[in-house]
Amino acid sequence: MDIFIDQFFNIEIMRKSLPLLITGLWMTLQLCSAVILLGLIGGLFVALGNMSERRWLRWLSIAYTDLFRALPPLVLLIFIYAGLPFAGINISPFAAVVIAFLLNNSSYYAEVYRAGLISVAKGQWEAAQSTGLSPAQTLIYVVLPQAVRNVLPDLLSNTVEVVKLTSLASVISLSELLYNAGMARSVTYNASPLVLAALFYLVLLWPLVRLVSHFQRRLAA
Amino acid sequence: MANRPMLEIVSLEKRFGTNTILKKIDLKVAEGELVFVIGPSGSGKSTMLRCCNRLEEPTSGDIIVDGRNIMAGTRRDLDRMRLQIGMVFQGFHLYPHMSVLKNVTLAQRKALKRSKVEADARAMDMLEQVGMEHKADAYPGELSGGQQQRVAIARSLALDPKVMLFDEPTSALDPELVGSVLKVMKDLKSKGMTMVVVSHEMGFARETADRVVFMDGGVVVEQGTPDEIFGAPKAERTRAFLSRVSG
Ligand SMILES: Nc1ncnc2c1ncn2[C@@H]1O[C@H](COP(=O)(O)OP(=O)(O)OP(=O)(O)O)[C@@H](O)[C@H]1O
Ligand SMILES: [Mg+2]
């Protein structure tokens, strides 16, 4: 039992590795912010493309979402980070992670938005446009708020997935939370930093997961 | 200048695929006139109204509002011209995520660029006109159908339209709520609004309409005063329709 506690819950080692883990957490948060924000914006445009009257835009949007949901994000990441240099394109690890996960993540957000936009009655568009609102104004003030509200649990679920996804960045040695925890483990020959990192993820994601359940129950009611 | 045309529908044609729904419709509505449109289901009444503000794109023809052709011009021009054409739907289509007041101010703020103070004041005026000022802070979901429809009318009126189009405004309402909406429409008429009303409320037409238009199969079959159409319809199709709806 002592060995267990010493190996996994060693307070002294946790304390020592804390600064490294905090640095990693900061990197993870930056990654998440970039991927989530850009994903929310990009996904909306992809979803709008999907619903466009122009056929080529619809096709482009469908090809995009199909491709980037089917490709494993890790494959994308390694291709962008380690494959593109062969074409003379060198990208920083941070940018590689953001681009790879953005492609993946915006596709999922796009599908969620699409479901949301479809859920808003056509009469809402017609009423708004009949009062002289432009299509963009109709979208922003009338349709999007209702669409987002209707799919809020799915948007949040997808956001949870993004946070988890960023731990894959450790594969290309980007010093985010998991990577730094692994470093601390190899320096201290002790698994406690990994446990601490897991706790960080838990603290980060548990409220979000709760929120998803809350909204799901409210929408079902 | 009485009797100048406020809305002119000129040889309006609408096809869906190979289906011709409106066949060269011509209709002139004078300033302050209330034109009441009747006809069997599928005769094209809604399509005609929806072509008037290009919610449905006409296949050919012109729609002229107060001398300006809304078929000409850019998308921007269309948004501006839609401000002059109020539309009231069978299903109300209030914005469920906004308060009644917000529903009535949104287009004033964003399309007409009125200040908040001005838009709020105008909205309260219009809500008062339709008897809904006491519900300014309520949400559409908390209102009865009749109340929602009156708010929807206020939402259109707040933009100072030159013409109001009504597509079966009372058809989705419980019978006891129909009267409150018809009363608002009657008030509007007495204030001089130009109106085109598609409805089955024949009593309202007899009392309020200047002209009744009977449509069938995408054409105007017959038109005249309420007395002429209801009392002595000339066309066989009109007679058949009227005996069906009254009988
Ligand atoms: N978007 C559309 N695509 C194809 N056909 C359509 C479309 N909208 C309407 N139609 C057809 O056009 C015809 C006229 O429809 P419209 O809704 O104008 O009739 P209406 O006179 O308003 O009937 P109702 O009294 O039932 O409301 C119908 O046959 C309908 O099926
Ligand atoms: Mg109709």
From TrEMBL, chain A:
Pfam families: BPD_transp_1 (PF00528)
ABC transmembrane type-1 domain residues: 25-213
Biological-process GO terms, alphabetical: amino acid transport
Superkingdom per UniProt: Bacteria
Gene Ontology annotations for the cellular component aspect, listed alphabetically: ATP-binding cassette (ABC) transporter complex
Record-annotated membrane-spanning stretches: 20-49, 70-103, 187-209
Localization per record: Cell inner membrane; Cell membrane
GO molecular function, one term: transmembrane transporter activity
InterPro entries from the UniProt entry: AA_ABC_transptr_permease_3TM, ArtM/GltK/GlnP/TcyL/YhdX-like, MetI-like, MetI-like_sf
Primary localisation category: membrane
Membrane association type: Multi-pass membrane protein
Keyword line: Amino-acid transport, Cell membrane, Membrane, Transmembrane, Transmembrane helix, Transport
Family: Belongs to the binding-protein-dependent transport system permease family. HisMQ subfamily.
Function: Part of the binding-protein-dependent transport system for glutamine; probably responsible for the translocation of the substrate across the membrane.
NCBIfam families: HEQRo_perm_3TM (TIGR01726)
Protein's name in the database: Polar amino acid transport system permease protein
From TrEMBL, chain B:
Keyword Transferase: no
Highest taxon of the lineage: Bacteria
InterPro entries listed in its UniProt record: AAA+_ATPase, ABC_ATPase_HisP-typ, ABC_transporter-like_ATP-bd, ABC_transporter-like_CS, MetN_ABC_transporter-like, P-loop_NTPase
Keywords on record: Amino-acid transport, ATP-binding, Cell membrane, Membrane, Nucleotide-binding, Transport
Signal peptide (UniProt feature, chain positions): none
Entry keyword annotation includes Membrane: yes
Places the protein is found: Cell membrane
SUPFAM superfamilies assigned to the protein according to its UniProt record, in alphabetical order: P-loop containing nucleoside triphosphate hydrolases
CDD domains xref list: ABC_HisP_GlnQ (cd03262)
GO cellular component: plasma membrane
Domain (ABC transporter): residue spans on this chain: 7-242
Recorded GO MF terms: ABC-type amino acid transporter activity; ATP binding; ATP hydrolysis activity
Membrane topology: Peripheral membrane protein
Family stated for the protein in its record: Belongs to the ABC transporter superfamily.
Full protein name: Polar amino acid transport system ATP-binding protein
Organism: Rhizobium wenxiniae
